[in-house]
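Form 12-C: Joint structure prediction
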Amino acid sequence: MNWQGWLLWGFVATLALTTMLSGSQSLGLTRINIPYFLGTAFTPDRRRAKLYGFLFHLIDGWVFAIIYAFIFESWGHANWWLGGLLGAAQAAFVLMVGMPLMPSFHPHMANEQHGPTASRDLEPPGFMALNYGVQTPVSIFIAHIVFGIILGAFYHVHL
Amino acid sequence: MPAKCAKIQDYGIIGDCRSAALVSREGSIDWLCWPKFDSPAIFCAILDRERGGYWRIGVLNATSIARKYVPDTNVLLTTFHCASGTVTLTDLMPVSSEAFKRTTRLPDQEIVRQIECSAGEAEIEMEFVPRALYGLHPISVHDLGKLGIRAKVGKGVYWLRTNAPLDLSETLAHSRFRIRAGDTFQFSFSYTEEAPAVLNPLGDFVRAGIERSINFWREWAGRATYEGPYREAVVRSVLALKLLTFAPSGAIIASPTTSLPERIGGSLNWDYRYCWLRDASLTIRGLLGLGYWDEASDFMEWMLHTTWLTQPELQTVYTLYGRPALEERELKHLSGFKNSSPVRIGNLARDQLQLDIYGEVIDAAAQYVFRGGTLDAGMQKALRNFGKYVVKHWSLPDEGIWEPRSGRSKHTHSRLLCWTAMDRLLNLRDHGWKLTDAHSFSETRQQIEQEIRSLAWNPALQSYTSVLGGDQMDASLLLFAWYGFEKSDNLRMQTTYARIRDQLDAGNGLLYRYRNDHSEGAFALCSFWEVEFLALGGGTQQAAENLFHHLLSFQNELGLYAEEIDPANGNALGNFPQAFTHVGVIGAALSIADRAKGTQSLPHRQEKASSHGTAQEASA
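Section 2 - Result
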């Protein structure tokens, strides 16, 4: 297990993913703000939510990166396209399974069936996160593929 | 179609210090730009009843309609009476303290409308017709069940939620329902460019939000330290001014609207959703005079820090974040208010030279300091550089305070403010601030004074004039006393005032700002300058109070003023509501109160002012 590679490139890949999604939001391709999305689970304070969400996402990225690392180790090798494939698979899982289930995980996400309540008042992402813009799946897909490519390409690179 | 709204003064304003909406007497929101004052409008029926979008909640067959704000707040109440009952519509953009925002998730922008029946019953009609980009495109609306109705435009998304029944078509929502005594229906309309959007529940949460907003505004209005006469008008004016403040930067816009005409059917239609530095000095005086230090400090910060991109040169007009205003263009698809076209966005004044603004900014800073404020190193450097700029450029012709598009002249008012710039920098130096190149500033002050006294004075007319060597009047000459160049009771000012009254009299006790061929309305601010002139000693206290009292008759029933007044019928003209006019109300009231108390809130000016023979001496 290349712990150094996991720590370093997991960090870099997560930063790249976050940056791409933030750029997509600035360009108007999606409305999703991942740090805010995650941080609202911890605090109603908008500014703090973004900070907490960013830190959570960073840890989340590392957690996923270690899964990638285990897979690379079990395959015995890693390269950019294998990483990219894993990224695509992860994105598909996040979009098709994770997002629709988000009202069950996120303590303040409203439910489409019951509508907003005092404690659950956040717009749910819906299937493929399409509620946050029709190009949201594309943005998330590309960002995760880049995440995987970075991990796959650099996992065995020793500095 | 939105309900008929024939007059500009038929509107009221609600806002959240980031954006504002105009609500008509009939309960129609006919103007709304989100997320900022200068964003494209989603409702602009005020500028085109066919193409502009609107959101109306009204009572069918209403026999009378009464409007008021909840006292000392910006929460608007419209009460409809009909044969079968009485219904009250409450309109607001919810506001709350920063502390509350840290504990509760709230939408970025929101309008809340609550309709309650207090007696009998009534038939309510609601029409929600959003249109993108100033009415250019209809917007598709989608029903997302219990989450509400969603409309996507560009980078953002709008949500409409209600407990009233709704019929949805592709681009609008419509509703007609009966309301009975004790019933309450609520509407929440929100906007965000960030996901996930916050969709607060209706019911108690909305009621609490209304209560919270009322408390917020009352607490804010209660901070006004003014104890003089006409307190209600003064507090309403500062509440209006607060609504025109863009809280994230501290900028204060001239007005939340564009292209409300200065002449019905005419082309004097301009975009005022920007910040004019010419308003600085009088605005700071108003805010400080009422004890609003935080707002004055924010405005000072905005003026001296946010404009750094163009310093030491200052532009006439800036955006909310201190960028040059948008280039002017016409929206040809809109017919304009009562067919007053063109409708313009952006403002050509951004390219004009107005030398008075340096004096305005420096004078604002001087007032701020003399009342106890401090200037950081960056502010001091900016002021010093403005002063050097004035030394080099004061003698140039410019467009002047009124921004005519007919070219540049040597305006007396611009000279007056260049003199003010030099004078206040020297005052600041006398108070220990290391701001000045004292010799050149003193020399320039003297040169400007000589030029004004010789070339701006017309011996044949026995009056100061609008431009050097001219023979026309300009109401801005009334400010000679305010800035401390002349005492208001001296002979020159008295004869100048008589000439202004003679040449610029618009009838109905009002003044034109200058004489031109456009037949625009009387300029409301100039009449408040006249009140100040009288209160500063140019007339009796009674004369000042009588005029002020008369001017209050031109506000609408909500206490709001536009830029101009039609002297023939008292109707409001121009963009609405207008910050500069409300600054005039506050300033005039402060001067009246000062005179009554026998005090001077700006004593250094009167000490400096030249006497040049009093009127009493002249008459003797």
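Section 3 - Comments
Chain B has two domains: 8-221, 231-619. The two ends of chain B are 66 Å apart (CA to CA).
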